[in-house]
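To whoever is on call:

I kicked off a structure prediction for a single chain this morning and the downstream step that reads the tokens threw a length-mismatch warning. I double-checked the sequence; it's 117 residues and nothing unusual in it as far as I can see. Pasting both halves so you can look.
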Amino acid sequence: QVQLVESGGGLVQAGGSLRLSCAASESIVSINDMGWYRQAPGKQRELVAAITSGGITNYADSVKGRFTISRDNAKNTVYLQMNSLKPEDTAVYYCNARKGILYRAYWGQGTQVTVSS
């Protein structure tokens, strides 16, 4: 099983930046895909950004040009660099990993990101 530990959330003013980290309990080389999801109050959980084991990335339209997902295989860690933050980015952010032939999903505990006006 994969355990995911998130960090880096907090309170930031609009226009500021945060970097979220997701540390995996095993080599992320063995994980097919990793990504970040978020869930804002009153909204469904949505995919923010994802990265494959081959380094292919995908972003929600709302964060393109502002957020960057990356992975450091040596540290077994995936990052989400968030720049030019907006109040609408406020949400609980969850790290996600999928692996194996069944493409089983694993989730982090979530970290709160709050962007003030």
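Update from on-call: the warning came from a stale cache, not from the record. Cleared it. Sanity check on the structure: The mean pLDDT is 95.
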